[in-house]
Design goal:
Order of helices and strands: HHHH
Structural class: mainly alpha
Radius of gyration: 16 Å
Largest sheet: none
Distance between the termini: 31 Å
Helix content: over 70%
Number of strands: 0
Number of domains: 1
C-alpha cells in the first residue's frame, strides 16, 4: 500500500470528531428555524455528540501511545475530550423531561467555549 493511502487512526479520529461537531452545529441551529423541528433536533444533536465523543476518545487513545508529545498538548487534548463530554451531557438534557427547556444550551455553550479554546491553543502548542 502506498504511503499516502495508509490508514491513520489520528486522521480518522479527527474526521469523526469534525463530522460530529458539524452535526452538533446543525442540531443547535435547527430550533432557530422552527420549534416544530425539536424532535429532529434532538436526534441530530445526539448523533453529533456521540460522533464527537467517539472521535475525541479515539484521538485520546492514539495520542496516549505517543510519548514524544509535550505535556501541554496532552492536556489540551484532554480538554477536547471534556468538551465532547459536555456535548453528550447536553444531548442527555434534551431528552429529559424534568429539566428546563433550555438547560441543554448551557452545556452546549460550555463545550463550544472549550472547543474554541483548544482549536486556538493546539496549533500554538505544536509549534
Amino acid at each position: 500500500m502506498c504511503e499516502r493511502h495508509k490508514p491513520n487512526p489520528s486522521r480518522a479520529a479527527s474526521w469523526t470528531a469534525n463530522a460530529g461537531l458539524l452535526l452538533v452545529l446543525a442540531g443547535t441551529a435547527l430550533p432557530l428555524f422552527s420549534h416544530d423541528l425539536f424532535m429532529i433536533t434532538r436526534w441530530v444533536f445526539s448523533a453529533g455528540a456521540l460522533l464527537c465523543l467517539g472521535g475525541r476518545a479515539m484521538d485520546r487513545m492514539t495520542s496516549r501511545t505517543d510519548t514524544s508529545e509535550p505535556l501541554r498538548l496532552k492536556r489540551l487534548r484532554r480538554i477536547e475530550l471534556w468538551s465532547a463530554i459536555m456535548f453528550a451531557v447536553a444531548a442527555v438534557f434534551m431528552f429529559l423531561r424534568n429539566v428546563g427547556p433550555t438547560d441543554w444550551i448551557a452545556f452546549t455553550l460550555a463545550g463550544g467555549a472549550l472547543t474554541c479554546y483548544t482549536s486556538i491553543m493546539i496549533p500554538k502548542a505544536k509549534n
